[in-house]
Specification:
Length: 153
């Protein structure tokens, strides 16, 4: 029993950390849907109809992922979904950077065009990569403490 405690605690911290990020980012986007629309449009990869759909759904997807992680329901599946969303975010930031766009990612509200030189692409990519690592931990070892799915499946 003792040999599982450290990995279980690490998994619980990963689950709660990822949940906090999803809840904070989702709520900040949900309370300002107009700015969320501006942020999604700034990536300049979707037609307007796609921007509308993504801007409307993204906050609620993030909140749902966060709630499921908080309660520990379907941890592995939610971690896979989290990793997929984060990889899309990484691709979005990478393509914006490669194309020379000057935007704020809008990851925690806000977003849209910024002055050249005010981008934070490296920091955004490092942060999202770290979050993918948290999700990867939960994919490989979903067992955590204080979770509805105590078996982590």
């Amino acid at each position: 029993m003792q040999r599982y405690l450290v990995p279980d605690v690490m998994g619980t911290l990963a689950r709660c950390g990822l949940a906090a990020v999803w809840l904070i980012s989702g709520v900040l986007k949900a309370v300002d849907p107009d700015q969320t629309h501006v942020a999604v449009r700034a990536y300049d990869v979707l037609p307007e109809a796609g921007v509308e759909i993504v801007a409307a759904m993204l906050p609620w997807v993030e909140i749902a992922l966060g709630v499921l992680l908080v309660v520990g329901a379907g941890t592995r599946v939610v971690a896979v979904a989290s990793a997929a969303v984060l990889l899309v975010f990484i691709a979005g930031v990478t393509q914006a950077w490669a194309r020379g766009l000057s935007i704020d990612c809008g990851c925690f509200g806000g977003g849209g065009a910024v002055a050249p030189g005010e981008t934070a692409y490296v920091e955004e990519l490092l942060r999202d990569t770290g979050l993918v690592l948290l999700a990867a931990w939960l994919i490989v070892r979903p067992r955590t403490l204080i979770a509805l799915d105590t078996r982590g499946t």
